[in-house]
Amino acid sequence: MTHVRKAHTFIRKAPASLRGTVALAERTGWRGRSGMIEWCVVSVHRLPSRSSPDSGFPPEVIVLAVRWYLRYALSYRDIEELLAERGIVVDHVTIYRWVNRFTPLLIDAARPCRHAPADRWLVDETYVKVAGRWTYLYRAIDQFGQVIDVLASQRRDLAAARRFFTRALSHGRRPVEVTTDRAAAYPRVLDEQLPAAHHIDDRYANNRIEADHGRFKARLRPMRGLKRLRSA
Q1: For a tag on the chain, would you pick the N or C end, based on fewer CB atoms within 10 A?
Q2: Do residues 169 and 193 lie in contact, with contact meaning Cβ atoms separated by under 8 Å?
Q3: Would you tell me which CATH number, out of the four given (3.30.43.10, 3.30.420.10, 3.40.50.300, 2.40.400.10), belongs to the domain 120-231?
Q4: CA 228, 231, 232: angle at the middle one, nearest 5?
Q5: In the chain, where are the structural domains located?
Q6: Are 121 and 173 in contact (CB under 8 A)?
Q7: DSSP state letter for 181
Q8: Any alpha helices (H) in the chain, and if so which ranges?
Q9: What predicted TM-score, i.e. pTM, was given to this entire model?
């Protein structure tokens, strides 16, 4: 098929040590110049073969399309246009199906490539609409901007904050410093779970994660919001 031949021309061949694999860029890993992306390796055998119902597209094309959608503020039609400019004809509905089908695989493949969380955390909550209803979203990043964990909750209370920190601490390294806003739940949760950590709640101290909320919400615009709580 023409689009398959052109796709092979477009996708850069991997080095000999990586043949049989494709590269995945995951936003929160790479400590390169931008401090954001790490190239992870994903086994091709977990993606569809060319004889599958996915129209014979090479796995490299599928991974590229899904990665673009997850990494950048692009709509399905934007990705359809970008691929068409490179000689790959694929409908935006097909890209939507790829994203829904293969995102869990790419998340599982990217997770081992992430750096362990650093020792200074910034924690904050923001608001997103899920199925038309406002929902609280707890988020934590480290001093390098790597996302540590995210939790969607219908309530902003002690139980939600405790649940969020329990999940975040399961990733390994415990922080020596935690910066939050002045929500009443945080001091109590930190006393319970991180008594040795230095708690900072000064005004403007959390500006970095609040700016990161803006980048996250910009990503939601082409998605037209979230339809299910688990999507957050």
Answers
A1: N
A2: yes
A3: 3.30.420.10
A4: 110
A5: 2-113, 120-231
A6: no
A7: -
A8: 2-10, 59-71, 76-85, 92-110, 158-169, 185-193, 207-220
A9: 0.63
Strands of 120-130's sheet in order across = 147-153, 133-142, 120-130, 177-179, 198-200
Please report where in the chains the tokens 């309530």 appear, as a residue. Answer: 155
Closest alpha carbon to 64 in 35, 29, 102, 33: 102
Three-state secondary-structure class, residue 35: coil
What the block records as the tokens of 219 is: 């990503």
Which residues sit opposite 134 in a β-bridge?
129
pLDDT per residue over 52-90, tens digit each?
545 578 888 898 999 898 888 888 999 999 999 999 999
Please tell me the distance from the alpha carbon of residue 47 to that of residue 103, in angstroms, as a whole number: 11
